[in-house]
Design brief:
heterodimer, A: alpha+beta, 2 domains, seven-stranded antiparallel β-sheet, 12 helices, about 30% helix, disordered N terminus, B: alpha/beta, Nucleotidyltransferase, domain 5, 4 domains, six-stranded mixed β-sheet, 16 helices, about 25% strand
Chain lengths: ~550, ~700
């Protein structure tokens, strides 16, 4: 018989590991340079056992990193086995297929030693603003155009920086100081995690984390399996059409639940695109599983045990299983749509428990000055704000207006955007009537009007979706309004790619609304009145 | 009449109003129930009681210091005024859109914080100011007239006026205020550019709306209090405690009541800072644990950490982002849902979870015998022998250990097939670890360490958990001051008069314009002086800070601004920034431009307290009142422990853990890892032994 305090000790060590990876992520978030890391939490951090199995991961703004980073460390160890690693070694990659799906994400892995043997590994990923190539955007046709690719290798070897690697990196990116700074941030946050782990091992009088790790994995896996077992067995199909880059993309999925197994298969989904919206498999796994985990076992921490209960497959050549050298830079534009299709399957297994479809893909335009001869601040600027549409209505509640889902990003204030650029955001306001009708209304999108303060022209680079195919309602609820991009003076612009906003013009963005839930006749009259009073809905027809 | 220079401090909390009278060098304290219909009644009641106890007349009071949670409660319970917001056309949803994010990733059912002003009362005004303060669209007074008509038909009681970039140019806000006042002279008007002239519209407008929302209620209350005090014969000034730890005058408090939120916790931190100064402890962690939450604050060199960001009403498990942001000067602390009433359960991973919800004081823990059926931290503490049933609350409330056994068995032990005692150990370990995790994260966020600090513990539940918290944080010394139950009010007696003002003015460090800066600080100085001068004629200290970052970063850090007349001011600012950045993040980034978003200036009376308490000497071994059974977490077993009454202990008395020191408002648990000695002020000083 084990001493009976042990389960509590295991729990306390587990809680410590969860706290350690949160601190690791906080360190990274506060020291990183890329705006999306700091403001939006586009990063991940985790601790792994010596077999490369993830034991704990920080809950950050990016579900897209969850499975991706979890599987990444195994790939590092396949190339550099634990026995070959030495104290002071730090490994690195930004390969989209070995890391988290596009070249901007750098993953750094640091082995941790106690009494000369490796007891654990810390890994962290962050989005580095520029990796050379065409820059962040969907317009490349091959990954080679999207920037520098660094295969899994050493960043530090027994404490010695790989100068050659740094030199190559610096020579290939637009802002080398920032890129270098971000690599140091990643290294430092792993070190911070390692220090905390050492303290924890001492506090709890442990040699390593294998024993506790085994308990974490088995407890999590069985808790997840119990959750899956509680779902009805069966095969549930769903599909959703979205805009894509130059032609619509069909996302087709079948969910098979058999006992404690849950399999998502994306057979039937559109083939790869000629542009940079293709999704490498690890990123597909991440957002597809996130869709399940929103409802099933959402309070069970992410680790190799809980993650392995959901299998995700997609056929070769499919946009969700893109192989090199397909362009993948804007893989989020497709990936963030996956929870909607997975929830569409779950609705059949759990009728009345899932939200309607939402805007889902964030609208994150890049605004650029036209540059040129003047060379003043007014024509050389870059800002990358994030605007959101509405989420789908929930089973018992309205959807959230102008809120990111599934992404967890935060937006930048209008005043900050105007201080750091010559643009004026004339309007940034809820878009009336954009939420799908229903007993519960879809979340509203927003209307944004932007022009150059001096009336000059500027560029907008777009990765927007739900312009042709809006978010659909659930259980009789209406569709959310489609998004729209146009010049106030007339012409509509496409949702993807870079366009010039001519001098004197005002650009208007209307982000999509979320789908509604249930029949609109069942809506609480007080809510109908409140929507009308607030001008969120025009007078009921 | 001869004034005895008596001072009275009053802290209105959610349940109790604490009153402390300081006269002739002694303190007399009293707790009375908070009277919600007119809280001034409770204040007067408590005041009369302490005056009677101290044989002091109302006219002998030289100063009244007051802190209150009324503004906070009005925000949490949404009992404020019917408030409208006049704002730049096209941007009226900024206060509701917030950061457009979800504060909890895996819960699809979360609700975003509901703004204090509903959309139909967010009224657009045609005007526009650019980022540099230039007017892009002149104010359309016709749109103001339309808004005023709505204010009238909608029976609005209070209005906030907040335009984009008005922190740079407040002309439009001021003109609109004039127009509104002319039509509605009795309406309460709050200008965002006065409450919080800081860049970032969501947080500024949220602050302005919160101020407008509580202003009529607070103005009424403060007026009533002033009248009642005068009628009772009090002739002294009345100063209000702010969240930033400084006192301010009544008029400023009535104008900017949002600055009064969290004044109680600020008082506690001031007390801890004072204790730190007198005892000469330079690195301190203050730890306040009550029935529902615990608050932890870092105090270096007797100064609590200050910041300008706060969230009221974190309604989702105290999670960041689930409350309403308020930008006012605050003593920075982390608040955790961990208190004596925190509820323990078992989750689907068969883990014990504790809090953040609490059984509160009604019905309270099962041990209180008032029908509470949840297993709480207090119940676990009772089962481990940390709380003595017959001595609790001075014997006023006899605890029921059988009830504690029943609920711990029902909610934890049975589910986990574990003994009741082991379950109780588990509950206390989990709550202690929760607090440790929060303390670590907080220290890390501010680039600081907990290890090697002195822990100053107060509040009803803190001394029960201080030893374990300290052990886990590598803290070797713990101080339990006197009067832990009325610590906030005592803190008010020790607080400086202080007022901080802010202004956003964007500058690149390399292009810093000294002329503009001198003018800006002169304006800030004048604004702060007007307030501070109303409350004191003592000499004043000035503190200036800049909120700086590398160009392109998202968050600013606070940097102390050097003397304005140093020869190379930009170089001095640059090195001050480097020092601050290195302090937080361990390194600086060479060759990157730095920018400044906002500037603050604070004027206040000096609070330099000299060290006047010597390290206590071991004089005599304290004599125990009895021997009891106590679970000792160091040995992991129930042991025999000495029990002492705090009232029996004298300076120089010493003892070793395991032991319990019982007093009316709390019990101090000394584990076997610590020894204890009483210092000359009667504080309990625990020291970790060399193990």
């Amino acid at each position: 018989m084990m001493p009976s305090l042990d389960p509590i000790k295991t729990q306390l060590v587990w809680n410590r590991l969860l706290a350690i990876v949160e601190e690791q992520a906080q360190t990274l978030m506060r020291t990183a340079f890329s705006t999306v890391v700091r403001e939006a939490g586009d990063l991940s951090a985790g601790v792994f056992n010596t077999h490369g199995l993830m034991l704990a991961q920080a809950v950050t703004g990016t579900p897209g990193h969850v499975n991706a980073m979890a599987s990444s460390v195994g790939k590092f160890l396949a190339k550099y086995p634990v026995d070959a690693l030495r104290p002071g070694d730090v490994l690195l990659t930004n390969d989209p297929w070995d890391g988290t799906g596009h070249l901007n994400d750098f993953t750094v892995v640091t082995p941790v030693f106690r009494n000369e043997s490796c007891v654990a590994l810390f890994a962290s990923t962050s989005h580095i603003a520029d990796v050379g190539g065409r820059g962040f955007g969907p317009d490349a046709t091959e990954v080679f155009e999207e920037g520098l690719n660094i295969p899994i290798g050493y960043l530090f070897r027994e404490g010695q920086l790989d100068e050659t690697l740094m030199t190559i990196l610096s020579a290939n990116v637009r802002d080398p100081i920032v890129a270098e700074g971000d690599l140091y941030s990643l290294t430092a946050c792993n070190d911070a995690g390692a220090d905390q782990l050492m303290g924890t091992l001492t506090d709890f009088d442990l040699e390593g984390i294998d024993e506790v790790g085994a308990a974490i994995l088995s407890t999590s896996e069985s808790a997840m399996r119990r959750e899956i077992e509680a779902l009805p067995d069966g095969r549930f199909d769903y599909q959703m059409r979205i805009d894509g880059y130059d032609e619509p993309v069909d996302l087709v999925v079948s969910m098979t639940i058999a006992g404690a197994e849950l399999v998502l298969d994306f057979a039937g989904t559109s083939p790869t695109s000629g542009y940079g919206i293709n999704v490498p498999m690890p990123y597909t796994e991440a957002y597809a599983s996130f869709g399940v985990r929103c409802l099933v076992g959402n309070d069970i921490p992410n680790n190799a045990g809980s993650l392995r209960t959901i299998s995700v497959t997609a056929p070769e050549g499919c946009i969700l299983n893109a192989e090199s050298p397909r362009a993948v830079s804007a893989r989020h534009a497709i990936g963030q749509m996956l929870p909607d299709v997975v929830l569409g399957c779950l609705e059949q297994a759990l009728p009345g428990r899932t939200p309607a479809e939402g805007a889902s893909c964030i609208w994150n335009p890049v605004f650029l000055g036209v540059g040129g001869a003047g060379n003043t601040a007014a024509d050389n600027f870059v800002i990358n704000p994030i605007f959101n549409g509405g989420t789908g209505a929930r089973p018992h509640k309205d959807g959230l207006s102008t809120t990111a889902f599934p992404s967890g990003v935060r937006t930048t204030p209008t005043e900050i955007n105007e201080v750091t650029s010559p643009l004026v955001i004339w309007r940034k306001e809820y878009r009336p009537d954009s939420g799908g009708e229903g007993e519960h209304r879809g979340g509203l999108g927003q209307t944004i009007e932007i022009s150059h303060r001096q009336g000059a022209a500027f560029y907008v680079s777009k990765m927007f979706d739900r312009i042709q195919f809006p978010a659909r309602g659930r259980r009789g609820g209406g569709d959310g309004a489609a998004g729209r991009v146009y010049l106030k003076e007339g012409a509509d612009l496409p949702g993807k790619g870079k366009d010039l906003v001519p001098a004197g013009s005002t650009l208007v963005l209307e982000t999509p609304g979320g789908g509604g839930m249930g029949d609109r006749s069942a809506r609480d009259p007080d809510k109908v009145q409140a929507d009308v009073d607030g001008g969120l809905v025009s007078k009921p027809k | 009449m001869m004034v005895r220079a008596a001072k009275i401090a009053v802290d209105i909390g959610g349940t109790f109003t604490d009153v402390v009278l300081e006269v002739d060098g002694a303190q007399v304290s009293m707790k009375v129930l908070t009277t919600y219909d007119d809280p001034a009644n409770g204040v007067l009641d408590g005041m009369h009681q302490v005056l009677a106890k101290a044989k002091c007349a109302a006219a002998e009071i030289g100063l009244v210091l007051h802190g209150t949670t009324l503004a906070t409660n009005a925000l949490i319970q949404r009992r404020g005024a019917r408030t409208a917001l006049l704002t730049t056309e096209g941007h009226r949803d900024a206060i509701e859109m917030a950061f457009e994010n979800r504060f909890e990733q895996y819960d699809i059912d979360i609700d975003r914080p509901v703004p204090l002003v509903p959309r139909k009362l967010r009224l657009p005004i045609k005007e526009r100011i650019a980022a540099d303060g230039e007017i892009l669209v002149p104010l359309d007074e016709g749109s103001v007239a339309e808004a005023v008509a709505t204010l009238q038909t909608q029976s609005v009681e209070s209005v906030a006026i907040g335009f984009l970039h008005a922190y740079r140019n407040a002309d439009h806000e001021q003109r609109v205020a004039e127009l509104v006042r002319a039509q509605m002279p009795d309406l309460s008007i709050t200008l965002a550019s006065e409450v919080c002239p800081e860049i970032r519209e969501f947080e500024r407008l949220s602050t302005a709306c919160a101020n407008a929302y509580v202003r009529p209620l607070m103005a009424r209350y403060l007026e009533s209090l002033e009248t009642q005090l005068r009628d009772a014969g009090v002739r002294s000034p009345l100063l209000l405690m702010t969240s930033g730890g400084g006192l301010t005058d009544l008029q400023t408090a009535a104008r900017f009541p949002i600055r009064l939120v969290e004044s109680g916790p600020a008082g506690g931190a001031i007390l801890a800072s004072h204790v730190a100064a007198r005892c000469g402890f330079d690195r301190v962690l203050s730890f306040d644990m009550g029935g529902t939450t615990a608050k932890i604050c870092l105090i270096d060199d007797a100064r609590p950490l200050l910041s300008r960001a706060f969230e009221v009403d974190r309604s989702y498990r105290f999670k960041k982002g689930s409350g309403l942001p308020v930008r006012v000067p605050v003593i920075e602390m982390v608040e955790i849902g961990a208190g004596g009433g925190s509820i323990a359960r078992v989750d689907k991973l068969s883990h014990i979870t504790v809090g953040p919800d609490s059984a509160g004081s009604e019905p309270g823990p099962a041990a209180y015998g008032r029908g509470g059926d949840w297993a709480t931290v207090t119940d676990a503490d009772v089962l481990l022998g940390k709380l003595r049933p017959e001595l609790f609350a001075g014997g006023a409330l006899k605890l029921d250990p059988a009830a504690s056994r029943r609920v711990v068995d029902k909610h934890v032990a049975k589910t986990l097939s574990m003994s009741i005692e082991q379950s109780a150990v588990g509950i206390t370990e989990v709550i202690d670890e929760n607090m440790v995790a929060a303390a670590r994260a907080h220290a890390m966020e501010w680039g600081k360490d907990n290890g090697g600090r002195t822990l100053i513990a107060y509040g009803g539940a803190a001394p029960l958990h201080a030893c374990q918290l300290a052990s886990k944080l590598k803290i070797e010394r713990i101080v339990i001051p006197n009067g832990a139950g009325v610590g906030s009010a005592i803190g008010f007696l020790l607080a400086p008069v202080r007022y901080e003002v802010v202004r956003s003015h964007y500058q690149r460090l390399q292009d810093l314009d000294r002329v503009v800066l001198d003018k800006l600080f002169a304006e800030l100085r004048e604004e702060a002086y007007a307030v501070v001068h109303a409350a004191t004629s003592e000499p004043l200290d000035e503190a200036r800070r800049a909120y700086m970052r590398y160009v392109g970063q998202g968050y600013e850090i606070a940097v102390d601004v050097p003397e304005l007349d140093v020869p190379d001011f930009i170089a001095a600012m640059s090195s001050a920034f480097d020092d601050a950045y290195r302090g937080l993040y361990g390194r600086v980034i060479p060759d990157l431009d730095v920018e400044i978003l906002s500037w603050t200036l604070a004027l206040g009376t000096t609070v330099d307290v000299a060290k006047d308490v010597e390290a206590p000497k071991l004089e005599r071994e304290a004599s125990a009142q009895s021997v009891v059974d106590l679970y000792d977490p160091v040995q992991g077993a129930e042991v025999r422990a000495d029990l002492y009454l705090r009232s029996d202990l004298r300076p120089g008395d010493y003892l070793s853990g395991p032991a319990l020191i019982v007093e009316e408002q709390t019990t101090s648990v000394v584990t076997s890892a610590y020894t204890l000695i009483v210092n000359q002020l009667g504080y309990l000083i625990m020291q970790r032994r060399d193990l």
